[in-house]
Amino acid sequence: MKIGVLSDTHGTLDPRVEKIFAGVDHILHAGDIGYASIILELEFIAPVTAVLGNCDDSAIGYPAAATVTLASKKLLVHHIVNPWALSDTAAGLIAKHRPDAVIFGHTHKPFAETVDGVFFFNPGYAGQPKFNTQRSVALLHLDAQGIRHEFIPL
């Protein structure tokens, strides 16, 4: 199963995302969406699980955290997560849901590492170019062998 992953769009969906995510089975947006219309555009590609980020208005109607099970892997999506120093909120979500992977955003930096048996993954920053920061989205491949990732620069 192939999953498209992005975060921190901040109201801008790069037109290349449609081609990059063509053929994915599901899309995860790890917060700082900007506008609900971003999720509607993504839903033309594949079903979407999205969460609010710290810059989002709760009125756009997404939860602060969500879990989804895809290809027998439980994924927890939450915007602000520090794998090395979990907040009480993040630690509580992980203890409650016992995910195989935690998908997060916020830092604008790609991250892929297993910590204490949980795969933590940040696709990087997908919003408007700024400060010469490398932007990216990602693909996750879920199968019997586990979870594999690839970062795709924008």
* Structural class category: alpha/beta
The percent range for strand residues is 25-35%
CATH topology: Purple Acid Phosphatase, chain A, domain 2
- Cα shape: globular
Q: What is the CATH superfamily classification?
A: Metallo-dependent phosphatases
CATH architecture designation: 4-Layer Sandwich
Q: Residue-averaged pLDDT, rounded?
A: 96
Q: Which percent bin holds the helix content? A: 10-25%
Query: What Rg, in angstroms, do the CA atoms define?
Result: 14 Å
Instruction: Please summarize the sheet with the most strands.
Output: 5 strands, mixed
Query: How many domain modules?
Result: 1
Number of helices: 3
Q: What's the helix-strand series?
A: EHEHEEEHEEEEE
Q: Could you give the distance between the termini?
A: 23 Å
CATH class reads Alpha Beta
Please give the number of β-strands: 10
Strand order in space, largest sheet: 3-2-1-9-10
Q: Residue ranges: pLDDT <50 for 5 or more in a row?
A: none
